[in-house]
Amino acid sequence: MIPPNIEEKIGARLLYKPGPLRLIKKKIEDYFSNYHNVGQAFAIMGSDDPYVSVQANFDDLLIPEDHPSRAETDTFYKDAKTVLRTHTSAHQIELINGGHLHFLTFGDCYRKDTVDSSHYPVFHQVEGVCLHPKHEWDTPEKAEKHLKTTLEGLVKHIFGPSIQIKWSTDYFPFTNPSWEMEICLDDRWLEILGCGIIHPDILKRCGADEYYTGWAFGIGLERLAMILYQIPDIRLFWTKDERFLSQFADGDAVFQPYSKHPPVYKDISFWIEDAYHENDFHAIVRNIGGDLIEEVKLIDNFTHPKHGKTNHTYRITYRSMDRSLTNEEINLLQDQIRKQTLQLPVGLR
Ligand code: DAH
Q: What pLDDT is stored for residue 349 in this prediction?
């Protein structure tokens, strides 16, 4: 069951429309289609249909049965066998099987998540894969070096040559070893991508393990665009407001905020039971409030010393990107949220 507010986003094709995501996509493509940057010209793909099999999204990538990302509280299931892809890694195997050795694949991805200015249930990723003859990358260090140099070149291409870069080891089921890259901006380190050496069992599934070794990476495009263009709120990628779109019509720009409309705050408080999962509450708020929801924040979390029950208080920030809100319309939404929240394993106060 895919909620209507998510379903209506499918097919929006933001990557192909004027705006910051298309600009970022173009920069990544330019870098990877230049043979001199990467030693290969990468094929550029993308799939418009975000429905993929559970097999492709999880099993093929060696993601264990009990991995939290498989839970219904994290992933949108259409039915037992089909999900909205949670990452573009879901296309690795089908593309390698199709004979591609070096490619990028772009796409819209979907995850249930908490609601704030940098998380939205629909976002965009690019996945990159590079396979190389084993006899040339005859030590693990050679593949690692090629991967890291390539990705360092990419972020320098996007953020300029003096950007500071830090690598740390990470864990993903589909790569081993795995790393994350952080970049430093205004004295803060920000994680911007995950990558690693493709697990040999994945190459085996494609019949490619005998001749090839390879690396892969995944990047979230909103995050890159928010950093590069100083876009403060992820909902802006979805606005049709010309005051936003016109700023990116001619290429790169630093976002100039236009008048911000005032927020409306509403708090809601309830006792939670064991089966309560925070993402379910965030999903209800997002479902009902749509793009008027700026943030849902847990502002109080306490467990009663006598009866041991836990109480959560959330502050919901409503703010429209393009108009002022009235208290009456927000009260109507807040009432609906209260009613629907009662369907969760909670007791309203
Ligand atoms: N699929 C991962 C995610 O969505 C990102 C990622 C990490 C992709 C490592 C990769 C990789 O290809 O090697 O968080």
A: 67
